[in-house]
Design brief:
This protein is α/β, with parallel strands linked by helices. 39% of the residues lie in helices and 13% in strands. It has 15 helices and 14 strands. The strands form 4 sheets. It has an 8-stranded parallel β-barrel with strand order 1-2-3-4-5-7-9-12, surrounded by 5 helices. A two-stranded parallel sheet has the order 6-8. A hairpin with a 5-residue loop joins strand 10 and strand 11. Helix 7 packs parallel to helix 9. The longest helix is centred in the middle third of the chain and has 25 residues. It binds 6-O-phosphono-beta-D-galactopyranose. 6-O-phosphono-beta-D-galactopyranose (BGP) binds next to loops.
Length: 480
C-alpha cells in the first residue's frame, strides 16, 4: 500500500508541472529586419542571401529576405500580443549583437539598440511573458567576422564579455533566462554561421575548429560567471543542436560509429555543463596531433557551468561505420544516413517524435540538470486560404500532428522522470529560414504575408495551429 501511494504521488509530479514554460522561439536575424536602422551594424546574415547553401555577397543585396525579415523591429507589439493570445509563458528570442555594438569592438554601446530591446522586454512583461534571451544566434557582427575571423580569434572573448556585461546590466530587472550560443556545435558544419569564421570552411583544419570552440567555451563560462555575479537569481543555459544518432544496424561497428557521432554533439554540452574537457576528446586530440592553446585561468573559468541545458530538436539521424552503403538523409545543418522507418518533411528532414523522448532522457541521464527544448517544429510550404468568414487562414493539420506527437513524447519523458522546464516551438510566427534563407519554409502558428520574391503586405494571419496551441497551453497539456 505504501509503495502504491508513493508511486501515485510521483506520477502526479511527473506530468507538465504548473510552471511549465510553454512558448515559442524566434531569432533576431530571421525576424527583425531593419538591418541598418537606429545605428545597427551589419551582421554576417546581412551578406548571406542564400543561407548556408549559397555564397556570401559583397554587400547586402535586396534578394536577402532577412534584411526585412518579418519586420519584427516595427511589429513586435502585435507579435507579442499574438503570443500572449496563445497563452505563451516564455518567448525565446535573441539580441542582435550588432545592434548593441555595431562593429563589435567598440567601447560604448549603441543606445538606440538598447532601447529597442527595452521596448521588447517591457512588452513581454506587460503580457506576462518571460523573455529567454540568446546572446548570439547566428549573427556575429560582420566586422568581427572579417577583421578577426570570428571565434578563431581569442580577441573575441573580451568583445563578447563587454557585450554580455552591457546587456546584463541594462536588462537585469527584465530578463531572468539567458543562453550563450545558439547551436554551438553548428561551428563544426557551418563555421561562418555558427562562429562568424570568415575563412572558407574547406580551408579550416580540425585544430582551427577546436581552437575556435575553446574560445567560445571560455567566453560562455565567463558569461555564466558575470551573470551569476551581476544578477544572482538569473539562469544561464547552453544550447546545442540536438540531433542524436541511431545505429543503422545492430552491428557492433555501427554501434561504435553511433557513439562517436553522438560525442560530436555532446562534446559541446559536456564542456559547458560539466566544466571540463572530457577524457575522450583529450585522447582524440593527442592521437591526432591537435594542440589547443589555453591561457592560465581558462580551465578554472570553465568550471562556471550552465544552470540548465537546452537543445533544438527537429529530427534524429542514423549512423553506420560505412555510410556509403546507405542513402544519405537531409537534415538540420548536419545529417546522417536515412532511417527507413521514418517519414520526412517537404525538406527531407526525417520526422521522429520518439527521438525527442530519447534525447531528453539521454541529456538528463548525462547531466541531471533541468532541460529546456529551445526549438522544435515543422517547416512546411503553407497555403493561405479563405477562411469562409471574410478572412484568411492556413489549415495546417500536418503541423498540429507533428507538434502533438512531439509533445506527447515530452509528456512521456516527464513520466520517465526527466526534469523538463519548458518547450519553445520554433518560428512561432513565420520567419525567414536559417539554412535556406527561404520564406516559404514556414514553422509558425501565425502566417506572415511575405513571398519568396520579397513581395507581400507583412500582414499576420492566425493558422489553425494557433488555436490548437492556445488550447494546449490553457489546459497545460491536458488537451493534447
Ligand atoms: C535551427 C536554428 C534556427 C532555425 C531552425 C530551423 O538550426 O537555430 O535559427 O532556423 O534551425 O531551420 P531552418 O530555418 O533552416 O528550417
Amino acid at each position: 500500500l505504501f509503495c502504491a501511494k508513493s508511486i501515485k504521488r510521483n506520477r502526479e509530479i511527473m506530468s507538465f508541472q504548473k510552471d511549465f514554460l510553454w512558448g515559442g522561439a524566434l531569432a533576431a536575424n530571421q525576424c527583425e529586419g531593419a538591418y541598418l536602422e537606429d545605428g545597427k551594424g551589419l551582421s554576417i546574415q546581412d551578406v548571406m542571401p542564400k543561407g548556408v547553401a549559397g555564397p556570401v555577397s559583397e554587400q547586402p543585396v535586396p534578394e536577402n529576405l532577412k534584411l526585412i525579415g518579418i519586420d519584427f523591429y516595427h511589429r513586435y507589439e502585435e507579435d507579442i500580443r499574438l503570443m500572449a493570445e496563445m497563452g505563451f509563458k516564455v518567448f525565446r528570442m535573441s539580441i542582435a549583437w550588432s545592434r548593441i555594438f555595431p562593429k563589435g569592438d567598440e567601447e560604448q554601446p549603441n543606445e538606440k539598440g538598447l532601447e529597442f530591446y527595452d521596448r521588447v522586454f517591457d512588452t513581454c512583461r506587460l503580457y506576462g511573458i518571460e523573455p529567454m534571451v540568446t546572446l548570439s544566434h547566428y549573427e556575429t557582427p560582420l566586422y568581427l567576422a572579417k577583421t578577426y575571423d570570428g571565434w578563431r580569434s581569442r580577441q573575441m572573448i573580451p568583445f563578447f564579455d563587454r557585450y554580455c556585461r552591457t546587456v546584463f546590466e541594462r536588462y537585469q530587472d527584465k530578463v531572468k533566462y539567458w543562453m550563450t550560443f545558439n547551436e554551438i556545435n553548428a561551428l563544426w558544419h557551418f563555421p561562418l554561421m555558427g562562429a562568424g569564421i570568415w575563412t572558407p570552411k574547406e580551408q579550416l583544419t580540425e585544430q582551427d575548429k577546436y581552437q575556435a570552440a575553446h574560445h567560445e567555451f571560455v567566453a560562455s563560462a565567463l558569461a555564466v560567471k558575470r551573470l551569476h555575479d551581476m544578477i544572482p537569481d538569473a539562469k544561464m543555459g547552453c544550447m546545442v543542436l540536438g540531433a542524436l544518432s541511431y545505429p543503422m544496424t545492430p552491428k557492433p561497428d555501427d554501434m561504435i560509429a553511433m557513439m562517436e557521432a553522438d560525442r560530436k554533439v555532446m562534446f559541446f554540452s559536456d564542456v559547458q555543463t560539466r566544466g571540463y574537457y572530457p577524457s575522450y576528446i583529450k585522447k582524440y586530440w593527442e592521437k591526432n596531433g591537435i594542440c589547443i592553446q589555453m591561457e592560465s585561468g581558462d580551465e578554472e573559468l570553465l568550471k562556471n557551468t550552465v544552470d540548465y541545458v537546452s537543445f533544438s530538436y527537429y529530427m534524429s539521424k542514423c549512423t553506420a561505420a560505412d555510410c556509403s552503403l546507405y542513402s544519405k538523409g537531409a537534415g538540420n545543418l548536419t545529417s546522417g544516413v536515412k532511417n527507413p522507418y521514418l517519414p520526412e518533411s517537404e525538406w527531407g528532414w526525417q520526422i521522429d517524435p520518439q527521438g525527442l523522448r530519447y534525447t531528453l532522457n539521454y541529456f538528463y541521464d548525462r547531466y541531471q540538470k533541468p532541460l529546456f527544448i529551445a526549438e522544435n517544429g515543422l517547416g512546411a510550404n503553407d497555403q493561405l486560404i479563405d477562411d469562409g468568414q471574410g478572412g484568411y487562414t492556413v489549415r495546417d493539420d500536418y503541423r498540429i500532428e507533428y507538434l502533438r506527437n512531439h509533445l506527447k513524447e515530452v509528456e512521456k519523458a516527464l513520466d520517465d522522470g526527466v526534469d523538463v522546464m519548458g518547450y519553445a516551438a520554433w518560428g512561432c510566427i513565420d520567419v525567414v529560414s536559417a539554412s535556406t534563407a527561404q520564406m516559404k519554409k514556414r514553422y509558425g502558428f501565425v502566417y506572415v504575408d511575405r513571398n519568396e520574391d520579397g513581395s507581400g503586405s507583412l500582414t499576420r494571419y492566425k493558422k489553425k495551429s494557433f488555436y490548437w496551441y492556445r488550447d494546449v497551453i490553457s489546459s497545460n497539456g491536458a488537451s493534447l
